[in-house]
């Protein structure tokens, strides 16, 4: 199997010392590769298939996406496919981020209060659509500043990149809110539904082990059947939904209480602290200690 190759920032940049490069490309099919930086790509025309970290999907005019540091991607079936590519290092956002290689970490530093609202759902490696052209206008302005290099151009580029990040985060938060509203509507409209009963059981008994199994035994349902229906009707597996409930409970206690973190974990249904810390970090982007500290700011 052919190993992917790295396209470094300096290969794209006008100056090898640049911490950001932004250029238009007529993109042809290209094999799997990664970058030693972050990437913001905007499709200005045509369409193609992109494979990102092994997942393939179509991209077309108006789509844009952030690619995390070191993530592997490729383009196939390119048809009149044009891009604006913006490659950047974390320190272009903030000097304290020098050497950081995680998009999630970048957001925690520059958008920490915003970041807490959506439990770590970063925009990295996801496809967004620029419905009103606002992102494109910002990118074109950044491209012009990069090409002209007038006094203060790095600060203007940084400000516009931050604006793109915030506008994209709005999409993430709005999508999360829409899912929550859909779930609430589901709860209101399905009082007799087996899955509503399962959801209510999980929300009441989230501290228990094998919660869904207990529900099925208590109400004489088949566990595989309920698991399948749960995923179909909520968009989450029962285990994912349970972890969401538990971590939300933990977050509320971390903000509003001074109890030790281990006690809070146990109160929320976690006995294995290593597992708890891993799940908490995955869902919020922060360790429990970092989350409590950030909430106090």
Write the layout of secondary structure elements.
Layout: E1 5-6, H1 9-12, E2 20-26, E3 30-34, E4 38-52, E5 55-60, E6 63-67, E7 73-88, H2 103-110, H3 112-117, E8 127-129, H4 134-148, H5 153-189, H6 194-204, H7 211-219, H8 223-234, H9 238-256, H10 261-267, H11 273-284, H12 288-295
Parallel strand pairs: 1-3
Antiparallel strand pairs: 2-7, 3-7, 4-5, 4-6, 4-7, 6-8
Helix pairs in contact: 4-5
* Radius of gyration from the alpha-carbon trace, in angstroms: 22 Å
Average pLDDT for all residues: 85
Number of domains: 2
Structural class: alpha+beta
Q: CATH superfamily name of the largest domain?
A: Regulatory protein AraC
Question: Which geometry do the CA atoms define?
Answer: globular
Task: Walk me through what this model shows.
With 297 residues, the chain is an alpha+beta fold. It has 2 domains: 5-180, Sandwich (Jelly Rolls); 190-295, Homeodomain-like (Arc Repressor Mutant, subunit A, Orthogonal Bundle). 50% of the residues lie in helices and 20% in strands. It has helices spanning 9-12, 103-110, 112-117, 134-148, 153-189, 194-204, 211-219, 223-234, 238-256, 261-267, 273-284, 288-295; strands spanning 5-6, 20-26, 30-34, 38-52, 55-60, 63-67, 73-88, 127-129.
Offer a quick outline of the entry.
The chain has 297 residues and is an alpha+beta fold.
Quickly list its features:
297 residues; alpha+beta; Jelly Rolls; Arc Repressor Mutant, subunit A; 2 domains; eight-stranded mixed sheet
